[in-house]
Amino acid sequence: MGADADKVFKALAAPERRLLLDRLRKDNGQTLGQLCEHLAMTRQAVTKHLKLLEEANLVAAIWRGREKLHYLNPMPIHEISERWICKYERGRVRALAELKAKLEKETDG
Question: What CATH class has 2-108?
Fold first, then answer.
């Protein structure tokens, strides 16, 4: 995951880019104009942020005629979750299952 993970973390570091991802999560497949609505950023700034999100593979752009539609790609975030979060959750879930089994034995016994 190496360099790809670095790009993802760098892209997620900026609150403006996280806001764009949130907007795409709510309404996927938006044009640049739609993404710019109600934002305190210039069109050029949004374009720059989208470029970094695309380079990190967090956003995929598809041309439909003259419109460029932007779509959220959740896979890089999922991969980070699998690598950095789920690994630690397994231990907690196992500990909770063992605690539940122990409590059930005590209650039945």
Answer: mainly alpha
